[in-house]
């Protein structure tokens, strides 16, 4: 039997026509949509799951936390173990693994089996995201890498806007198992699309594992991951609690809150596409500008949340800013990754999930303190300001290293970077 490496020895990305390239990128975006929807599903189904399986709501909430931990810790390990396998074959294998996890969730008779299914899907999640980001960059036309990554990333924003709410609706109407089954069936359709449209690619990780680990453990790379943690974390300090803010401070009805969340999602989609387009032109200004707008918009939300019209406008700008930084952060990570591109991208997905968890935790601490719910947007803004400071430090180190390189090439003596 031929090995996976023998089956896919040729890199056919250069043979892609314009339509095939676009179709492949859209198929990757569909996969991201499916994965993002699956991750968010339990958030809208905690009550029916807890009632049917016979566990408390906080215990059911571990389906979200356990999944996030699976992405944070399992993704990088699996990425290291599979780094030398052909990319397309690995991508298809991971989609199958993701389907297995989803299928287990759909038929799980007990809570223990349900959470096992979630963890299985989570293990595939981190590596799949990493491969898809690098694949989007690889098959993009020259100079359009950021736009290609943003297009694939738009699948996640659509999952937030459409996938998760639709999954919650199906679960409430027809039982919580149906959305997991639908996601599994969609995953199979995506698998067929990936097999047909995405070109064969050999392993991109030619460096030894020790070399890759050395690369991703360098202070400059860790600093870039921390930029992601605090960038994503800042958003989720406030977004995790946006519903109670809109309900208790802005005094919106449940229906109006749904509309505002949709407006946030529309803003996030626009921000994601603009961030990708501008990253191809001026990466660092796009990243700094997006983070600054994010910090300012969340700080303003603590004021505008007392006025319905102003709150809606602020939420739209907030959504734009929050997702405008995703592609620049991805590209920044890949720039620092050397030959560890997919491991680095997987670690960045872990950093996003860690930021989400950290942000929710910080927001909860603020609510439980004497500051209370109105101070949550301010706390979110401060976390993002920390991300801006880390980004400035990263750029400073880049310039310092560049200066040291110039001094060394000119033979002017030793320079410690």
Rg from Cα: 22 Å
CATH architecture assignment name of the largest domain: Up-down Bundle
Count every helix, treating DSSP H or I runs of 4 or more residues as helices.
17
Residue share in helix = over 70%
The name CATH uses for the topology of the largest domain is: Growth Hormone, Chain: A
CATH class of the largest domain: Mainly Alpha
Main sheet specs: none
Number of domains: 2
Average pLDDT figure: 86
Main location: membrane
Membrane topology: Multi-pass membrane protein
Keywords: Cell membrane, Membrane, Transmembrane, Transmembrane helix
Transmembrane segments: 62-82, 89-109, 115-136, 148-170, 176-199, 220-243, 255-276, 283-303, 309-331, 343-363, 375-393
